[in-house]
Amino acid sequence: MPNTKDQQFSTEHLKVGLKERAVKSAGVTLAAQGIKLALQLGSLAIMARLLEPADFGLVAMVTVFTNLALQLMDGGLSMATIQRDEITHAQVSNLFWVNGALGIGLCLLGILISPIVALIYEEPRLTLVMVAMSFTFFIGGISVQHEALLRRQMRFKALSVIDIASMALGVVAGITAAWAGLEYWALVIMPVATFGVKTILRWFMSGWKPSFMSRNSGVKPLLGFGVNLSGANLVGYMAVNLTPFAIGFISGAQSLGLFNRSNMLTSIPSSQLLPPVMNVVQPTLARVAKEPERLRKTILSIMGKLILGTMFVTLSMAVLADWIVELFLGPGWDAAVPIFRMLAVFSLVEPVAGFMAVSLIATGNARALLHWKVITLLVLIVSVAIGAFWGSTGVVAAYALSGVFIRLPGFLFYSSRFMPVTFWEFNKALLPSLACAFGAVGALYGLRQFILIENPFLGLAVFALIAAAVYATLCLLLKPTRRELTETVQLLKLLISRKVTST
User: Which positions carry the signal peptide feature in this UniProt record (predicted)?
Assistant: First the structure.
């Protein structure tokens, strides 16, 4: 009989019924994501009414740096644990201490550079904000491997409970602080409380306790993988945050606050759908990474369904931007509408690019991803530099347009060199859904010219239903999208039948 520790790290049992397990896991995580979406939208609407745009901009100046540190805190080691075919208790324990050391180091570094951050933006209040936010690095660092073990074992029900509980308590803490008049400090309290609860629950749910560091555990290859992935995350983070940094530097907290809230709203479909899907996709692809044909079919199948569910939503947001901003941000945010529209168009890039990145990581191509991230950063630097001649609006436009017309096509072509999927096959999976989405959005735009509705909630409800009906009709007319719809319905039936059986 294998001992308990060996059973904690084995994944052989996951290879049996992998498709059914992945579908069931996706169902659990998507259901949890629906609850998290409600919490996010509710907190967004409440906080936008309790705080000023400048409050969000002020904290966004700090999060440019703190989110970078959060990427480094992981060190790429969580994915090293998930992606590895075989791993031992000693190896994971060593990775735990590395993550803990990274968390402490980044916490101390954040405290040391806090005056420099305040000096860069010429905003003295940022010093204490940066100090407070730095404690999240230590809190989060000591639970990275616990989460990785839960994901490796595909225990997504436990992960969903952790995410919902920690987010709910964080939201309650933030809203309470805002209601009490703590202004921008409410936006600091919210993530600190969330990280604290999440760390406690990860330890409890995983049931794993690390041992002391040991030699000759064979952890070196895992650290090498983590270094490449951390490099990719670092460069990718610089690319993502170059735009908000440039806006804050050029136009100040007010403009950055408008961008920050607009970006948060437009990224909701991707941020809600993508993480749960990717959390399931990572271990699923890792388990079939050594079977090229099975890997190819899995990648194309997931990509087709992911695009089918996101393209239409992201493009529709551009047409309905004024109602969305009014409903979720309230009065006083009209200046965010044009920014929201540009970011809504760009947001169609995120699901595809995110999936391709996860696919490269899950198949062990972290170094290839690092190289692409460097190319992306260079393209973005040139784009933002050109856009800066037209102020913050030009920066946002350059960010969005370069993503749609340069970075995404380039990434698909580049990725085809490292996976058993050709560039043409990627395009065949993408273009039909894109064509249907453009057709539905065109009809939506035309209808808005003739049907006038003052109430934003009613307008969104009516036009979203009409657009969805048009999109579904167009998808049924095209063979590739009709096949994806049919397969999606079959997966939903599988999900329901599995639930009924387990009950």
Answer: none
Q: Among 260-274, 337-351, 374-388, where is mean pLDDT lowest?
A: 260-274
Please tell me the distance from the alpha carbon of residue 100 to that of residue 104, in angstroms, as a whole number: 6
* Distance, CA of 32 to CA of 159 (rounded, Å): 9
Q: What angle do CA 152, 201, 18 make, to 5 degrees?
A: 25
Report pLDDT for 2.
39
Q: Which residue, 444, 461, 273, 449, is CA-closest to 351? A: 273
Sign of the CA dihedral running 442, 447, 448, 449? positive
In a domain, 188, yes or no: yes
Residue 252 phi, psi (nearest 5): 90, -175
Cα torsion angle, 111, 116, 121, 124, sign: positive
Mean predicted confidence (pLDDT) in 451-478: 90
Residues 161 and 76 in one domain: yes
Q: How many CB atoms lie within 10 A of CB 463?
A: 20
Per-residue pLDDT, averaged over 347-368, amounts to 87
Q: How far apart are CA 327 and CA 41, in angstroms?
A: 10
Distances (CA, A) of 264 to 18, 261, 345: 34, 5, 14
Structure tokens at 492: 């939903």
pLDDT tens digits along 470-484: 999 999 999 999 998
Q: Is residue 5 domain-resident?
A: no
Q: Which two tokens stand for residue 55?
A: 């409050």
| Per-residue pLDDT tens digits for 258-277 | 998 899 888 877 776 676 67
Q: Residue 61 and residue 127: Cα distance in Å, rounded?
A: 11
Q: Which two tokens stand for residue 29?
A: 């995580």
The alpha-helical segments, DSSP class H, found in 75-125 are 77-83, 89-121
- 473 within some domain: yes
Q: Which helix (H) or strand (E) holds 51?
A: none
> Whose structure tokens read 């992606």?
83
Query: What token pair was written down for 350?
Result: 């995120």
Q: Measured between alpha carbons, how far apart are the two ends of the chain, in Å? A: 30
What are the contacts of 488-495 at 24+ separation with CB within 8 A?
Answer: 488/305, 488/308, 491/23, 491/305, 494/20, 494/23, 495/23, 495/24, 495/26, 495/27
3-state secondary structure of 145: helix
Segment 358-363 shows an average pLDDT of 85
Does the structure show a pLDDT above 50 at 303? Answer: yes
Q: Are 202 and 57 part of one and the same domain?
A: yes
Please give the distance of CA 369 from its chain centroid, rounded to a whole number: 17
- Residue ranges making up the domain that contains 170: 51-218
Predicted confidence (pLDDT) at residue 240 exceeds the cutoff of 90: no
Query: What pTM does this model have?
Result: 0.71
The CA distance from 245 to 419, in Å, is 34
Within-domain flag for 382: yes
